[in-house]
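hiii, so i know i said id send this last week but things got crazy w the move. better late than never?? heres the sequnce for the chain we talked about at the cafe, plus the structure i predicted for it. fair warning i was half asleep when i ran it
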Amino acid sequence: MCCKPLTRTGLILLLLGVGQLAAQTSVTRLSFTRPGGMMRVPTSSSVRSNNLFTAGFVLETVNIVPFNNASGVYFDAELTKNLRIGLSSVTTADTSANLDSSSYSPPLEIGLHFQQRIWTYGNISFSLGLHDIVLRQSDDGDFDIDPDLISILGVISSEQSIGSYNLNTYMGFGTGAIGGAGSSSDSTGQIKLGVYAGFQLVTPIMAKRGGLVVMSEFDGSGINIGVRVPLTTDYQLMLGAVHVESLPKFGTQADGEALDRNAPSIVLGLNLSVPRIEGGAAAKKGLDELGPRPDMASSAAPEQLLPAQIDSTLKGAEYIITLLRDSLRIAQFESKNLFAQLAQKDQHGFSLADSVRNMTLRLEMMKSNLNTTMRHLTISWQHFFEENYREALQEIEMAIQLNPDLAIAYARRGSIYYKLGDTQRATINWNLALKLDSEYDDVRNILRALKENRLNATSFSQQ
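okay and structure toks below
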């Protein structure tokens, strides 16, 4: 393939383009090297990190054949309760148009990042930072600072729990290399300002190792997506794609095109998280300097408690209050049930008491009637022996009205009717008496004697 020879002007423009691309693809643009764990955007949090520091290396590939990539290592730590720093060392990708014949040697770049959390409210926080203090190694071996890349930034975060998931949202603005601004000012001297946003979802997948993390972000010039796969509780494998909207252009640098500042790339990295260690005087002293621990909550002042500790305590208290509320509802239900059973038993007791009173009243009435009945029977017996049969019959009638189930009364009335010469009525009353009392032998003997025509006056002596 033939090419047109470069003129002096074309060569100068090409060198300027390469220099500009070198600056734009510097350490500030390498994925996962900024503090906070996202790919290319800064983050903030309302709680302090559980890690003493994190470190790792990243490989960002922009072309496969010939192989072209940017690589680097980084370090991230929270020095105090709210101050976070980051340090990275990176060699950038080759920005030449012809990789096969390129003799470009990417310089070593060192990036410094500082960030201060200045405000928290519940699960929302706001941080200010000074990122991208880039020291680039020149041809003579000295390191120079590029002031155009220094970024002044602000970022606000929101951290939400959705069931067993945690969703973190980051939005912010910045000058310099932040948000795709490229440099802190344009040719007219006016400050450029870029905006960015990011989302991070912590899933319950591999929760014992910390959980699989999925992230997506807009860094001001393109969309990036990535994941953190927890290999162990300390090591995470990082995978991602930069500028996914331009992925069809991946590897076009092999076709003789210069590397565009928004060129897509594939990211691979390994992260080490070192958690804070408890135990021992030295560790205790270090933790005391870094801030209060959860087991110091009782002795620490309320304003010194970390938001995570307060939130954890509130969640624990809410769980206990929920249990107590449920127990109270069950106790109230059981109490109502017991009251209902007690009321039912009281009603049953009242019914039994009424029944006893009724039975007592009936017994009293029966007793009173029986006494009156026996008195009428006695008087009728006297009238019977005095042969005053009409008076005796009146007394028996009153006795039967008071107690209609008394067999002796009917037997007596049968004897009176027999004396009055009314054998038929006498027989009817004697049979009634025998029906009421089947073991009334005197009445049975009278009826037998009447049938055999041997009834006499002595047969009534015992009635």
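btw The helical segments are 8-24, 281-290, 307-385, 389-402, 407-419, 423-436, 441-451. thought thatd interest u
miss u guys!!
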